[in-house]
Design brief:
about 280 residues; alpha/beta; TIM Barrel; 8-stranded parallel barrel; binds glyceraldehyde-3-phosphate; Triosephosphate isomerase; cytoplasm; TrioseP_Isoase_bac/euk; gluconeogenesis
């Protein structure tokens, strides 16, 4: 029998590769999410999906959940490529409508995304909060729309530089978290993903230090324990985003409360993105 090509679903993976990263012991599977933002047409999208999938080995994709977030216009091409070639990659949307259907020009609804096989949807990204004036209440409505349609929201929070300089970043982010999770039930929270993205680090090349990322992700987990239960909080994945690259991913991802990354620019370059995925430690 011909062995399956690299990056395809190949059943149970083998053990940890010799010399690979050590398990963190958290039980939380590392998640690397590639947010393509408003980049790549559908042909470029197909090419990138193929490069990523064929560069990653089945055991690497088993160890690190790897999910792509193409623009809506590319979604069908990405889905066809992943499903048609049985690639072990997930895909999701960068946003969704708070409404499920109807007269909402330009919106894309949760039922459409679910029908296309999306599993995750990003809500509350700082670029949407800025460009489209999305408030915490809007983000909460979008998270509700995600759950209503069987999608898992990746809820983004993060502070601007002036807030960090003022030293109120923790309070700021926890208040954003409270508002953005309004209405989320404990049952729903079991699957939610939070992404801490300091706005000053997004697309700037200025990554937060691993310790700063850890401190905020730990504070987020602490607040999740209050909002839900300590047991639920212990199972929730909290990602860091903001100039994650191959050179800094391993240090970030080995921090105890950092469960992976939301990657923008570096997710557009196959070799860089796959190196980031490889940096992910086992749970
Ligand atoms: O969604 C991704 C984040 O905004 C990070 O983007 P970046 O990796 O280009 O800094």
């Amino acid at each position: 029998m011909t062995p399956p090509p690299l990056g395809r679903s190949a059943g149970k993976p083998g053990g940890r590769p010799a010399g690979g990263p050590k398990p963190k012991g958290t039980g939380r599977r590392t998640l690397v999410a590639g947010n393509w933002k408003m980049n790549l047409n559908h042909l470029e999208a197909i090419a990138l999906v193929q490069k990523v999938a064929y560069d990653l080995k089945p055991d690497e994709l088993e160890r690190v959940e790897t999910v792509l977030f193409p623009p809506f216009i590319d979604m069908r091409s990405v889905q066809t490529t992943i499903d048609g070639d049985k690639l072990a990659l997930g895909y999701g949307a960068q946003d969704l409508s708070p409404f499920d259907s109807g007269a909402h020009t330009g919106d894309v609804g949760g039922p459409m995304l679910a029908r296309l096989g999306c599993t995750y949807v990003i809500v509350g990204h700082s670029e949407r909060r800025t460009d489209h004036h999305e408030t915490d209440a809007v983000v909460a409505a979008k998270a509700a729309a995600a759950y209503r349609n069987g999608l898992t929201p990746i809820v983004c929070i993060g502070e601007h530089e002036d807030v960090r300089v003022a030293g109120t970043h923790v309070e700021h982010c926890l208040a954003q978290l409270d508002g953005s999770l309004a209405g989320v039930t404990p049952k729903q929270a079991e699957t939610i993903v939070i992404a801490y993205e300091p706005v000053w680090a997004i697309g700037t090349g200025r990554t937060a230090s691993a310790q700063d990322a850890q401190d905020m992700c730990a504070a987020v987990r602490g607040r999740l324990a209050t909002l839900f239960t300590p047991e639920i909080a212990a199972g929730i994945r909290v990602l860091y985003g903001g100039s994650v690259k191959a050179a800094n991913a391993a240090e970030l991802f080995t921090m105890p409360d950092v469960d992976g990354g939301l990657v923008g620019g570096a997710s557009l370059v196959a070799e860089e993105f796959t190196a980031i995925v490889r940096s992910g430690p086992p749970a």
